[in-house]
Amino acid sequence: MTYRTIVAMMLALRQLRQRERWSRPQLDAYRAQALHDLRAHAYAHSPFYREFHAGLADRPLHELPVLTKAMLQAHSADIVTNRAIRPADVAAHVAQIRGAERFLGRYFVTATSGTTGEPAYLLYNQREWATMLASFTRYERHVGSLWGLIQRPRMAVVASTTPWHMSARVGATVRSSVLPMLRLDVGAPVEQLVQRLNQWQPHLLATYASMAGILADEQQAGHLQIHPRRIVSTAEVLTPELRTRVEATWGQGSLFNQYGASEGGAYAVECSAHRGLHLFEDLVIFEVVDETNRPVAPGEFGAKVLLTVLYNHTQPLIRYELTDSVRLSTQPSCPCGCAFRLIDHIQGRQEEVLRFPAATGGTVAVHPMVFYRILDAAPVAGWQVAHTADGLCLRLSGDQGAVDEPQLVASVRRALALQNIAPPPITVQWRADVPRGATGKAARIFRLHGQAA
Ligand SMILES: [Zn+2]
C-alpha cells in the first residue's frame, strides 16, 4: 500500500468521524447536497444515466427506476463516468491483480460476490477508495478506540483471500505498520487457522459470522486460546444464537456486527450501546422496500434495499437493488449520541428464501432465519441446507457424535409444519468440510434445481 493511500484513508476517516457528531438537520442537508452532486455528475458524464433517467432529472429519488445487477453488468461501459474505462480492459486488469494495482494507474477495481454468472466490477478513484477503506475501519470509533488501551493493537482478519474480492483488496491496501494485521484464508483448514491465531494473539478479530461461531467452538474446546477485545462479524447473517455463543466465549458486548458489500463498502456497524447497526447515512442512501419497490416502514422487514452510494462518482450507483431483507429500527435515537439511524435486524438474502407447497394449497416462502435459528444452535462446525428434487438435505460438518440427528430433523420438520408446510423428506449428510463459495462466504441455504443431494 502506498504511503499516499494510507494518508488519504486516515484523512477520510477523520472526516467520517466528524460527521458522526452531526445533528439530524446537518446530516439531512449534507445528504441532499451529495445526492444532487452525484446526479448532476452522472447526467453530465454517464450516457447510461442520461438515458435511464431521461425526463426524470428533476424528479425525487424515489421516482427513479431501479438499477439491477444485470443492468450494471450489461451497461458497465456506459455507466462509468470516464469514457476511457472499457469493460474488457477492466476484466483483463482484474485477472492479473495480485496486490494494490490500479487500473489505468487511477482506479481501484473490485468485483461483486455473486454466486451465479459473471461478476460485476466496481471502480473507485483514489479518493473514493480511501473513503471506502475508511468505511470499513469506521467501527474503530464506534467500538471505542483500542489505541488508548493497548499500545499497538494487532488485528486478525479471517476472510476471502481471492485477490479481486473486496476483503482481500481492502487488506492489500491497508496492510501496513499503522495496524499490524494477520490475514488468513477462511477456506484454510480450521487447525491451521487456530494455530496461526494462537501465535498472533489478536486484539481485534474480524471474520464472517459462521467463522466466528466455528472459532468460538474451537476456543470452548480449548484448541484456540486467544483473547480478542473486539470481534467484528461481517458479511453473513448473525443470529441471536450465534451472538450468544461468541459472547459466551469472549465476553458480553465483545461482538460487533458490521454490514456491507462490494457495492459501496461498509454500510452500517453496531456501536457499543448494541441497539442495532448505525447506518452510514453520510455515505449511502438506503431505501428499504417491498417486492414492488414500495417503501416499508421502520419496524417491518423489507424484501430488498435500494442503495444509492453518495461518494462514488466514478461509477454511480443510484437505486441499486440489493436482495437483502433488513428492518429499520423504530428507536428515534441511540444513547451513544450518533444521529445515524439504526438497522435493528438483517435477515439475509432473498436468494436464501426457499419455497414449498403449502398444506392448504399455494406455496409458502420459508425465511432463512427459520433454518439459521435451528442450525446455528446445533453443535456443528458448519451447515448448509440444500433444497433438492428429493426434499431437504442438511449438510453438516464437525463432530457427528455430538449431534442428535433424529432430534435435529424433527426440529426442522416442526418448524416447517408451523409454517403450514407439509414437510418434504429431510435427510442428513455429513461432510468433511462444508464447501464455501468463490468469495469464501458459505452459501448456507440454496436450491439445487432438479438435482438430488
Ligand atoms: Zn449508537
Molecular structure report:
The protein contains 14 helices and 20 strands. The strands form five sheets. Strands 4-3-5-6-7-8-9-14-13 form a nine-stranded mixed beta sheet, sandwiched between helices. Helices cover 32% and strands 23% of the residues. It has 453 residues and is α/β, with parallel strands linked by helices. It has two domains: 345 residues, Rossmann fold (3-Layer(aba) Sandwich), CATH 3.40.50; 95 residues, GMP Synthetase, Chain A, domain 3, CATH 3.30.300.30. The model has no long low-confidence stretch (mean pLDDT 84). The chain is globular and about 60 Å long. Helix 12 links the parallel strand 6 and strand 7.
Structure at a glance:
This protein is an alpha/beta fold and 453 residues long. Helices cover 32% and strands 23% of the residues. Zinc ion (ZN) binds next to loops.
